[in-house]
Amino acid sequence: MTHFHIVTLFPESIDGYLNSSIPGRAQKDKKITVSFYNPRDYTNDAHKRVDQKPYGGGPGMVLEAESVLTAANAAIGRKKNVLVVFFTPAGEQFNAETAKKYAKKYSHIVFICGHYEGIDERVRTILKAKEISVGPFVLTGGELPAVLMTDAIARFIPGVLGKYDSLEGERTASSDVYTRPEVLVWKGKKYRVPKVLLSGHHKKIEEWKKSR
Q1: How high is the pLDDT of residue 156?
Q2: What secondary structure, in 3-state letters, does 40-103 show?
Q3: Which superfamily is assigned to 2-164 in CATH?
Q4: Domain extents for the chain?
């Protein structure tokens, strides 16, 4: 089993996705576990405030180090085989090969989700976090990258998918897929399924898929 630990101010923003479809079924089948850690629950501030103005000036607010570190420590504890991920556009590009490697290598993966203008840099330094990018763009927070990585990694965990062939990277697949009806009529125009897919000729079908 792989345990995903998500440090976030907004667990409700991603809880629904991870409890539905394949990730949800994987949790019910005890193939993966997902836990949330809200820094607001780990602060000593009476008003549960966890953001502060940045030193040196600048726009917005920055998440303080102490509450994020305390939340992360609650996730990490004394566990072994743990990867801590810190999201940044400048980090290593996440891809399918990375997902496959992490699924095999780590029992616990901790995602540190930034928000506002980011997290105090000392969090990354202290936790020796792996810097990861899910693309050359900036998002409001780290919640979407955490969901993306959880979903992608979980698919490589044995038993999460019904069949190994369901892994797109492990089968002959085309980006073009079709289902019934054979002829779709939309706004007066007919759209047909490619004849080769109706032929029953498996060799030709495989060749067609590889050509797409």
Answers
A1: 95
A2: HHHCCCCCCCCEECCCCCCCCCEECHHHHHHHHHHHHCCCCCEEEEEEEEEEEECCHHHHHHHH
A3: SPOUT methyltransferase, trefoil knot domain (3.40.1280.10)
A4: 2-164, 172-211
Q: What are phi and psi of 32, to 5 degrees?
A: -135, 160
Contact 192, 182 (CB under 8 A): yes
How would you classify the pairing of strands 82-93 and 51-52? unpaired
pLDDT digits (tens, 9 = 90+) for 161-188: 976 545 554 555 567 888 999 999 999 9
Closest C-alpha among 104, 95, 86, 98 to residue 7: 86
To which H or E segment does residue 191 belong? Answer: strand 189-192
The total number of residues shown for the chain amounts to 212
C-alpha–C-alpha distance, residues 90 and 110, integer Å:
19
Q: How many CB atoms lie within 10 A of CB 38?
A: 18
The whole-angstrom separation of Cα 64 and Cα 151 is: 28
pLDDT score recorded for residue 6: 98
Going by C-beta distance under 8 Å and a sequence separation of 6 or more, which residues neighbour residue 37? 5, 6, 7, 8, 71, 72, 74, 75
Helix (H) or strand (E) holding 16: helix 12-18
Give just the sign of the alpha carbon dihedral 70, 72, 75, 78: negative
Q: Which two tokens stand for residue 46?
A: 């009476």
How many degrees, rounded to 5, is the angle at CA 87 between CA 66 and CA 50? 25
